[in-house]
Amino acid sequence: MDQRLGLVRAAYLNDFVAILRDVGVPVDRFMAESSLPQNIEEMPQMQISTPTAVDWLAKVGNDINPMELGLLASVYATSSSLFPLQQTVIKSAHSGIKRLEALLGLMLYEDRTLKIRIRQKADSYCVDIQSPLKNHRYNCFQEWICFQAIIAIIRSVTDPAWCPSELSFSSHIRPPEVIYNAYPNTRIFCAQPQTSITIPTSDLLKTYGKVGATALDPQTLIKVTNVYHEAAAWELPSYLRALVKPYLTDGPIKIDSVSEITGISTRTLQRNLKENGSSYSQIIQEARFELACSHLNNQNMKVIDVAIALGYENPQHFSRAFRRFAGITPSEYRTQIL
Fold it and tell me: Is 275 exposed, middle or buried (0-12, 13-18, 19+ CB in 10 A)?
C-alpha cells in the first residue's frame, strides 16, 4: 500500500492539537478548512489518514520547528493516548520487554503500513520502524508519535525522566537545541536510512510490580521481529471503512473527497472496490453499521443518541436502515448483547 494509505488514531493527532491550542493557533479555523474530520477531538479512537494529518500539521504549525512540535506533543502525551485495549494489555505485562512487545504488536495492528523489527546490540536493543511516509518532508511527526509511545512504555517501568540511548530520525529536518536539552544523555541523529530507538537491555528487564525478570525471554526477539506478519495488510474495503467512519457524523462522505484524501482517482477506487466484490455505497453502509454497533455496545448511549452520532436527523430512519442491514432493530441488537 502506498504512502497515501496510512491510518493513525485521532488520539495521537489530538496531542499535537492540544499543543497548538496552547500557543494560540486558531485550530478550529484551520480544521474547518481541511479535509480532516471536524470533530476529531471528540472521537480519539477513530482512525484518520496519516498523510492528511501530517500535511495539516505542517501547515498549521509552520511557525514552530517541526521537530520541536513533535517533541512538545511527545512530552504532552501519556499512556492515556493509547487505545484502551492497549492500556489493558500493556498493564498486564510486568517487564519492560513484555510491555514493549505488547505495544509493538498493537502498533502494527493499528497501522498496517508500518514495519517494525527489533535488533539486539551489545548491551541494548534497537527498535527499527519503517513507514511509507519515510520520504515525506514532515515524517518527523509520525516518528515522534512512534517514539512517544515507546518512551512512555519504558518510563512506566523505570522513571518519568527516562531517556533512550539513541534516537535516529529519517527526517532531514535539523533538531533545534530544545531537542538536545530534553534528551541530554541521548545520541540524536537525523537524515538516517532508518527510524530507530535504542533501549538499554537493563531497562527492558526492569519490572513493574512484584514479578521479577532475570533474563530476556529468548522467544521475545523472534516474536517482535516477525510480529508484523501477523497483522494482515489493509485490503482496500477494510481500509476505506476505517477511513470514512469519522466523517459519518456529518453524513456520508462523498467518494470524490475520499479520492482526494487517498490520492486515488474516483474511477480507480470504484474499479478496485468492484474487483474486491464491493462498492462505495456498500462501504458506507458497512461503516455505518460497524459504527452503530460500537455505539450500541455503550449502554450509556440511548438509541436516539446513536442515530444523531451517525448523522441521522430522524431516529426512525436510523432504525429502518439498521434493520435492513442486520435484520433486527437497534433495540433488539442491544438486548442480544446484554
Answer: exposed
